[in-house]
Amino acid sequence: MERNRYLVGLIVLTFFVISFLTNIIGPLVPQIIEDFDLSLTLVAVLPFAFFIAYGVMSIPSGILIEKYGEKQVMILAFMIAFSGAFLFGLFPQYIVAVLSLFFIGSGMAMLQVAINPLLRVSGGEENFAFNSVMAQLFFGLASFLSPLVYSYLVLNIGSDDMGFFLTIMTDLVPAELPWVSLYWIFAFVSILMVLVITLSKFPEVLKNEDEKVGALETHLEMLKNKKVILFFLGIFAYVGAEQGVANWISEFLSSYHGYDPQTTGASTVSWFWGMMTAGTVLGLFLLKVMDSKKILVAFTSMVLICLATALFASGEIALYAFPAIGFFIAVMWPIIFSLALNSVKEHHGTFSGILVTGIAGGAVVPLIVGSIGDVFGLRVGMLFLFIAFGYILSIGFWAKPLVNNKTIDFAGKD
After folding, report:
1. Ramachandran angles phi, psi of 188, nearest 5°
2. What distance in Å separates the CA atoms of residue 29 and residue 95, rounded to the nearest whole number?
3. pTM (predicted TM-score)
4. At what angle do helices 332-341 and 292-312 cross, to 10 degrees?
5. pLDDT digit string, tens, across residues 53-65
6. All structural domains of the chain
7. Alpha-carbon distance 235 to 139, whole Å?
8. Which run of H or E residues covers position 242?
9. Per-residue pLDDT for 259 more than 90?
């Protein structure tokens, strides 16, 4: 089959957009608390609304793709994301933000399910691992850039020296809520992606029998398997811990060390994602030369040290410790996902859908952190992350894959 470089590029761009929309929530948290006068629990409902959409939409998305194909589902996904961003742009209120983020999260969940099999077909199976890593690097780049875009907008909207773009943003957003301009950018990017995908020609994706999303009976059968539940909890714990760190970095630095969330806070979150990208590259190299379970144990142990340092050391050290967490958690998703798929003999498509549903952990863990933080303080709330990372550490000891990691395909990362 002829390889479609244009479509590979489009999929990589889609990864970039997914990441840009997903990982901007953390830098916004202190501003949202201040502007809407929210408790830590109420502000944690925002990432909850976003990530719970993965729990709701992942498996239905697989069924929709089986029926209507990747192209139609991707168009629908970006239309749903557009409607969410547009709605909040028009009505920037807390309750609308919750609904908006559920819509955007639903769109991102649908895209996640659609683009991995599409990448395998358009780029060729023999290039799947390489193309997936390239996509993840762009995913990390977008996570690095989005907090910097936020800082640029809030510092320059309403200033004396504004170009055409900032002038339009100034007219669209309330003067006291310049960060709402991000949602207008989300809306514009989403509708632009709808146009690009509509005009693009997609190949037919012929899934291997093992890649297809199974019927309800298959899901129920898989859920009776102890290994499936344990690895689902691993993905749940990982995404929960990742977002539990990222979403609270800026607020923690502001509350305990007095750093400005619009500059230092946003920059630290940006470096958290940037270091995760660097960690991904190192992790892929190490996985070629070391047992994946040993890497998981070593890197998770370093995360626990870095988290303790970030929470209890001085502000100057915390500015480095939080990004260091990003570096060391980079290997967790591909290792957990690979160990999971290599621990069962069949129904890998169904299992992947169940694992992706575990992204809903990004909804639950930050909410728990915020709820504890309201009662005992954010530092105590973030101690809950040690439980999530502790579970991930345990995987390195109890996992017994059927295939060792020399033959692992690292294509499963979101």
Report:
1. -65, -45
2. 15
3. 0.80
4. 140
5. 988 888 788 778 8
6. 5-407 (1.20.1250.20)
7. 18
8. helix 226-246
9. yes
